[in-house]
Amino acid sequence: MQITGVTQHHLSHQLDGHFEPTWIPGYPQSSHEVELFEVETDAGITGLCASPSFAGGLSYETPLSLFLTGEEPHDVDAIRRKLESIDLIGPRPWHLELALWDIIGKDAGKPVYELLGGSGDAIPCYASTGEVQAADERIEYVQDRVDEGFQAVKLRVAEKEDVEVVRAVRESFPDLPLMVDANKGWAVRVMANEERWRYKDALEVARELADIGGIEWFEEPLPRHDYEGYARLREATDVPIAGGEFNDRPGELYRFLDHDALDVLQPDAALATGIRAGVSVAEAAEEQGVEFVPHTWTNGIGFAANLHVMAAAGSPWCEFPIEPPWTPEVRDFLLEGTFHHEDGYVTPPDGPGLGVELDGGVLG
């Protein structure tokens, strides 16, 4: 089997309103922008993958076709070496590996997680917020999610004062597991710069979270390459520390492990590692007693790919993004079906490959 070409489509889906994600400071997001790729083969099998984008899009179909045409899609390692070259000169290409596994799974007639040695067991999920809200709004949001059956909720903090929102939620929900995400690892600086924290700021917030109690983890309180700072913070606080969602290539994730810097490792298969390296990193993390809970806030194809990795890795949690008007239907608008949770659990798709099909209308 050989790859015969790559076709790219820019997709844009309007939200019913807007929200202000903490990773794009000052920006009211009102659309979901996606670059969709179809990797075609001479066997008539097409693999799907997608990456986040922005209005107007970013076209790189031609160089991808140049690098991948003629390659055997089952030779994932050889193609990853080519993707490393693309990573040097252009956009991150790791989402392309998702399409390879989609092809491999379709060719074998099996879901990717099964090829990776995983099971199709349901995974408990936590509702992942995307913006900072006032305490009364967040309490109402959390009540809605609890009523829907979610097992836990992740709150966002952008400034140190936002910890008071976490405290208010804890007082209203004394037994609910809470995650807290500072989003200081990276940011998209379109409208404004994010408030960056120094080590002492992160430590101050971590100690307040420890006082609040019941915090599953404190996520990305420092820049994503500050391995020493993360290790120092982890040593100084009792609150578990998480990060690594957007670090580039597995080597950067292994640096976290080398520094004993994290309690929870979170690389996104679509953004940071691809599928094969994601599973390898998860295995290394398990050997050190570090949990593996990937970031999933991209699109329906990225969500599916991370579910397969989680199923192979035995992840204890699945991030389930929901911040109306960002809903599962918005996340998965490009797919024929929507991934929903059932009483706080989500199941990896059991169809061949990634187990997803495109909505018939998204390509016009």
TrEMBL record:
Its cofactor is Mg(2+). Signal peptide: none annotated. GO terms for molecular function: hydro-lyase activity; metal ion binding. Residues 135-240 form the Mandelate racemase/muconate lactonizing enzyme C-terminal domain. It holds the Pfam family MR_MLE_C. SUPFAM superfamilies: Enolase C-terminal domain-like, Enolase N-terminal domain-like. CDD domains: MR_like. Keywords: Magnesium, Metal-binding. It comes from Haloarchaeobius litoreus. This is Mandelate racemase/muconate lactonizing enzyme family protein. The keyword RNA-binding does not apply. Gene3D superfamilies: Enolase-like C-terminal domain (3.20.20.120), Enolase-like, N-terminal domain (3.30.390.10). The keyword Membrane does not apply.
